[in-house]
Amino acid sequence: MPDVVTTYVLTATNGGGSVSSPPVTVTVHSPSLRLQYSNPAAPDPVKPQIVVVKNSASTPSRLVLDVKVGTQPITAFGLAMNIPLAITIPGNPAVNGPFVGDSSLTPPGLISGTIQMSSSPATGAVMVGGAAMPKFISVGVAKHKATLADGDATWPANSVLFSIALKMVGNPATGDVFKGATVATDPGFRAAALRKDGTEALSKQDILLGDLIISL
């Protein structure tokens, strides 16, 4: 196995001459721990949905996930998700890992997008495991109301509602954190885009997650 990026060309030769395959490049990385996320399938082109995808600014130790509107606009006030995990994160994740919401952000772990959050009072939060919910990542984000009469907003198609930034802590064990297909059928999965009156604009069946693993 090469330890640098290498391009291969396969050539077959016999009495009749030779033929070469198209070049194939193998990209490798140094053997270090990384947060690795695989995007889910593309959203339905005719159905309102929300999809969670990897942001290109992600690094091996800092994963940024964009929570995006699919191909159809959605009118709602906020979004909440409780994502069940394949691992347990007891105690203080900031000390014990395997990862935590990026504390350099306000609110910690969240980046505003189409949904404009407020920090005072806070209208967004992300919680990674911990003593109360050791097998969940929980996130909730709602619109900051300029006035009491402020209502729902229309989120444009393909817009990023907000982003979740997770930073790896220490040297966690490798393995699955969550798998989108498993989460979708887990009774502990709770997710919805909510209108101001509390009714659901989208249910958990309309929210698409990929696979998050810790790998070498």
In words, what does this structure look like?
The chain is mainly β and 216 residues long. It has one domain (31-215): Immunoglobulin-like, CATH 2.60.40. 5% of the residues lie in helices and 43% in strands. The protein has two helices and 20 strands. Strands 6, 7, 10, 11, 15 and 19 form a six-stranded mixed β-sheet that branches. The longest helix has 6 residues, at 180-185. The protein is globular and about 85 Å long. Mean pLDDT is 89; it is low at 26-30.
Percentage of residues in strands: 35-45%
What is the number of helices? 2
Spatial extent as radius of gyration: 21 Å
Largest sheet: 6 strands, mixed
Mean pLDDT: 89
CATH topology: Immunoglobulin-like
Count of individual domains: 1
Q: What is the CATH class name?
A: Mainly Beta
Give helix and strand order, one letter per element, not per position. Answer: EEEEEEEEEHEEEEEEEHEEEE
- The low-confidence parts are 26-30
Question: Quick summary of this structure?
Answer:
The protein is mainly β and 216 residues long. It has a single domain (31-215), classed as Immunoglobulin-like (Sandwich), CATH 2.60.40.
